[in-house]
Amino acid sequence: MATTITTPFLLLLVLFILINSISIPSFSCPLHQKQALLNIKSNFTTFFNVSPSDFDPFQSWSPNSDCCSWSRVSCSESATVTRLNFSNIMPSYHNPASAFFDIFTPLFHIRPLEKLDISSNYLVGEVPGDGFRNLTQLHHFDLSFNGFNGSIPYQIFRLTNLRYLDTSLNSFEGKLGPEIGKLQNLESLHLIRNSLTGNIPEEIGNLTKLRRLNLAANHFSGGIPCSIASMKDLEEVDFTFNSLSMKIPTGIGGLPNITILALQDNELTGPIPASIQNLSTLVTLRLQNNKLSGEIPTRIFNITTLNYFSIGGKESKLIWNNKAKIFSKGRLTEISMPSCEISGQIPEWISSNTRLQYLDLSGNKLEGPFPNWLAEMDLNTIILFHNKLTGSIPQHLFESTQLHVLHLSRNNFSGELPENIGNATDMEYLMLSGNNFSGQIPISISNMWDLKLLDLSTNKFSGDNFPDFSNNFNLIYLDLSYNKFSGKILTNFPPFIEVLYLGGNEFSGHLPWNLRKLLSLKHLDLHDNNITGYFQDVLPQSPDLQVLVLRNNSFIGFIPTTISNFTNVRILDLSGNKLTGSIPLEIANLTRMIEPPIHKSTSGSIFDDTRRIYGSYFGNYVRFDIEDLIVNWKNNFQGISSHSLDIYSLLDLSNNRISGEIPASLGNLKSLKVLNISNNNISGHIPLSFGNLKGMESLDLSHNKISGSIPKSLEKLDGLGILDVSNNQLRGKIPMGGHMSTLNEFKYFANNSGLCGMQINITCPEDIPPPSEGRDDEDDENLSWIFWVGTWIGFPIGFFSSILIMGYFLNFLMLFKVCGKGGAAGGGQGEEEGARKRSFDTRYIVAYDCCERHHRKMYAGETEIANEIMGFIVSGYVWNDRRSHKTETNSYFNQRGVAQVAKGLGLVDGIHWSQVQTMTVALRRYPDFGPSFGSVRVQVMGMPVYGHAVSAIGRA
Length: 956
Known about the structure:
Blueprint: H1 7-21, H2 31-48, E1 73-75, E2 81-85, E3 115-117, E4 124-125, E5 140-142, E6 147-148, E7 164-166, E8 173-175, E9 188-190, E10 195-199, E11 212-214, E12 219-222, E13 236-238, E14 243-247, E15 260-262, E16 267-270, E17 284-286, E18 291-295, E19 308-310, E20 317-319, E21 334-336, E22 343-344, E23 358-360, E24 365-368, H3 372-375, E25 381-383, E26 388-391, E27 405-407, E28 412-415, E29 429-431, E30 436-439, E31 453-455, E32 460-463, E33 477-479, E34 484-487, E35 499-501, E36 506-510, E37 523-525, E38 530-534, H4 535-538, E39 547-549, E40 554-556, E41 571-573, H5 591-594, H6 606-611, E42 629-632, E43 637-640, E44 650-652, E45 659-661, E46 674-676, E47 681-683, E48 698-700, E49 707-708, E50 722-724, E51 729-733, E52 754-756, H7 777-809, H8 812-825, H9 831-852, H10 863-875, H11 888-904, H12 916-919, H13 921-925, H14 930-935, E53 937-940, E54 943-946, H15 950-954
Parallel strand pairs: 2-3, 3-5, 4-6, 5-7, 7-9, 8-10, 9-11, 10-12, 11-13, 12-14, 13-15, 14-16, 15-17, 16-18, 17-19, 18-20, 19-21, 21-23, 22-24, 23-25, 24-26, 25-27, 26-28, 27-29, 28-30, 29-31, 30-32, 31-33, 32-34, 33-35, 34-36, 35-37, 36-38, 37-39, 38-40, 39-41, 41-44, 44-46, 45-47, 46-48, ...
Antiparallel strand pairs: 1-2, 42-43, 53-54
């Protein structure tokens, strides 16, 4: 039976075929948007010279395809580009310092753009602001993890649709202005780790929709704006690492949704607002390292949601109520309460927090043993340093596989370390310094494969059998200094060790050969041992060496010219050895002592690893602050932190047998702060180039054979606080310009043959004014040689002549009247006592008369001054005998002659000529008296003779 096909059906079939055969164009992104993106690709590939085989984030970007299908591009339903994700697209092999925002400027033509992410590209330079006026639809903008500088473009604050803004980890600077208050749709604001300054504007309170506010690690100052109380949607507030001051606004306690309140590391003052105890949703509270005061509110521990709690710190004045009964809800994961005046034993209420992982009770007044319940809690981090804890460490503590950080330094723990210490295989930081531990180091400690830092310094460990660290590839910091270890230096070093401190022990013998093979070594300190050998043969070969301290050992040999290879050395201390030879010229090529340090982040360096742990433990960090390097800094041994090594630069070659002259090239070391070459056999002059040592704070050249004068160029050293040139052969005037005028400690200039200057109260010949007008130098020369001859011959005559003259000027009758009174006053006390009274009265009259001429009154009881003046008169300081002081011989001869004459006449009993020089200090100390004595003179036989007889009155 045939099937009949109706006509309507055939017509529908034909229409269906025709419709499907017609080509209908698909939707694609607008041409101008595609071209803008292709321009970005062109900029990128041209700038970085990317080839097809290289990493190319734009490989899918073809001119023949729809841009909505490209990687890193998202479009709306209408095929319009709305999202661009350019995060982390820069080639890792390229130097990021050469990349700028200009690569992305074509995107400003894509006006419908809603989300833009250019983070983690290490871009530098300023961000151009003009193009952002086109991106009015932008609601998400992330430019974090770059190197942008300058200010944040103000045009960004006009993007009123922004809900997310992140400029973190850049170098933006300037102030955060009131225009921030215009972003009223903003929900997240992250400006972490920039260089923003000034106050946090009150207008920030306009951001009532804001949920996350993070301004950490900037330079904001002033107070926390009170307007923050109006931001009721706030969930997270982080102002850590700024300079915020004043009190915490009480309004913060009225934020109902707050979960994170982090205000640590600021300068906040006053008490903790009681309102904070009302934050019922609080999970994290960080108030550590501020200047808060008052009692710590214990009701905070009643917040059932609280997990992370840190408070106290070095400058904190908070006080813990040791009598308070804490009923913790057992939810705390972190308890950090350093320097909170907690006393007694470690509080047992801590044990109720079964989730606890992090405990810091350092810097308190805790006593007693390490509790067993704490050893059984299986914590991640235990920090109890700087307390008064005693006893031994429980063995059970090291059975934990969770323990990463154990810091028990500066307590009174004793005994030997448990043999099972190596069972804590996850340990990364173990610090036990400053206790009384004894015995040998357990061999099992080398089983801590993850160990990065081991500090056992300043204990009583002994022995010569050391663990084998040769397989500890993570161990980069090892400090065994200040113990009683003996024998030869251990040879089983960690292969990648960077810091090795073995000083202050009893090690002996030669250094092991493999020490030179530690190519990662940055710090080597072996001071105060008995290590021998030729210094030139034991130098490490590490190109990164920054600290080399071999002080007080028995090294011999010389400083080789290869010392210049250590271009990174900033601390070089070779003092207290037996080194000979001269200071090599090449020592002036130590680059880090020449150029000032470039301060930059040390993130990822040894110093970060050994002192700070960022983000590893519940968002908190550990600051160890180890003063691990002991050096002779400005004539005082002190500990300095190698974390701040860039601010120190020291060269100490003292107490050796080095000879020769000081190389002038040492003046190149402009960054050097301390230079000590004392107690050697160095000769020659002080180089003029030392005036170039702009960073110098302490310069010690004492106990050598240095001659000549102190260079005037040292006046340019404004930071010089110590200049010790004592015990040399220096002569001439001490420079007094600039900072040199303040260096007036006599001991630092003592025992030189001819130094003078105001700093040591010795007048230089060129500074002595002429004796009188009209007398020429030739007359002085002719008279000088006969003056003291006249003194010997004419002194007896001058003695009696001076008495007559003084009687005329000083009212001699009154003098005897006073003397009589003195004798009468002493009559009842015996002849000897009366004579002493008469002597005092007479000396007072003479001194008073001299002083009165210069309008200066002396109190009768100042017997010390009167005696010094009398001693000065006897010393024979001659005012017109200037030329006789040109030579040391004449000066001593004159003083000796006067002393002998005075002794012969009975003027001064038992005086020795060598004491005369000391007595002349009276004139220098009381210079106003000088002219008075000089005026008392007579002419006898044509020769000037001074009135030394005045002193006879003082002995009458």
